[in-house]
Amino acid sequence: MSAPASVPYGSTFLLVGGNDKVYKFLPETEEWEEMPEMLSQSKFAVTAMLIHPEDMDANDKEIAALI
């Protein structure tokens, strides 16, 4: 994984980018969990943020599906 972005996620955080995978940090064990979600392709030096679906309109959802 090279140049991933981190994003807060509940009481922990996710790493996104550097490849096509998303990882969640597990603070209780200090290990990483590979999430079932994947990027459509490997990304390098990305910016990541969580957006709640109810805050997205139809155009936003269409763009998010392409990412």
What does this structure look like?
The two termini are 18 Å apart. The longest helix has 9 residues, at 58-66. With 67 residues, the protein is mainly β. Strand 2 and strand 3 form a beta hairpin. The protein has one domain (5-66). The chain has one helix at residues 58-66, and strands spanning 5-9, 12-16, 21-26, 31-38. It is built from one helix and four strands, in the order ββββα. Helix content is 13%, strand content 36%. The chain has a four-stranded antiparallel beta sheet with strand order 1-2-3-4, with no helix packed on it.
Write the layout of secondary structure elements.
Elements: E1 5-9, E2 12-16, E3 21-26, E4 31-38, H1 58-66
Antiparallel strand pairs: 1-2, 2-3, 3-4
**Helix and strand run:** EEEEH
Q: What's the mean pLDDT score? A: 80
What structural category arises from helix and sheet content?
A: mainly beta
Beta-strand portion reads 35-45%
Largest sheet: 4 strands, antiparallel
Low-pLDDT residue spans: none
Reading side by side through the largest sheet, how are the strands ordered? 1-2-3-4
Roughly how many Å apart are the termini?
Answer: 18 Å
Keywords:
single chain, 67 residues, mainly beta, four-stranded antiparallel beta sheet, 1 helix
Provide a compact summary of the structure.
The chain has 67 residues and is mainly β. The chain contains 1 helix and 4 strands, in the order ββββα.
